[in-house]
Amino acid sequence: MKTLGKKIRLLRHQKGWSQEDVAKRLDISIPAFSKIETGITDINLSRLEQISKLFDMTVVQLLTYNDTEQQEKYITELETISKRLQERESEVIQLQKKIIDLFEEIRRSKLLA
């Protein structure tokens, strides 16, 4: 059951929910939900159905959920964001160079005046 708890925790994090948020939605205490995530408490079928509905999944999807696809999606997204960041950094460097050039031009014009 520990792996199921890990899956539930991962899904909760992906939704941006706290343990308190999920506990309220399941109408259980925060410690009770924490025990589900850590695998201390076994989940009965009705609770499993309740959790799967909460995450818009079937029980089978929840039980067989594999975060590998999600991780691949995140890696691709991270690579895209990293590339954009590098492009922005290049733009910033170019703008800094322009500012330095303009500063030098202003300084020279003041010296000649």
Could you characterize the architecture of this molecule?
The protein is mainly alpha-helical and 113 residues long. The chain folds into 2 domains: 2-64, Orthogonal Bundle (434 Repressor (Amino-terminal Domain)), CATH 1.10.260; 67-113. 81% of the residues lie in helices and 0% in strands. It is built from 6 helices and no strands. Helix 1 (2-15) crosses helix 3.
Characteristic terms for this protein:
single chain, 113 residues, mainly alpha, 434 Repressor (Amino-terminal Domain), 2 domains, 6 helices, 81% helix
Number of helices: 6
CATH architectural group of the largest domain: Orthogonal Bundle
Kindly report the average pLDDT value.
89
Low-pLDDT regions: none
Radius of gyration: 26 Å
Query: Helicity, in percent?
Result: over 70%
Overall 3D shape: elongated
What order do the SSEs take from the amino end to the carboxyl end, as H and E? HHHHHH
- Structural class per helix/strand content? mainly alpha
Write the layout of secondary structure elements.
Blueprint: H1 2-15, H2 19-26, H3 30-38, H4 45-54, H5 59-64, H6 68-112
Short description:
GO terms for molecular function: DNA binding. The chain is mostly helical and 113 residues long.
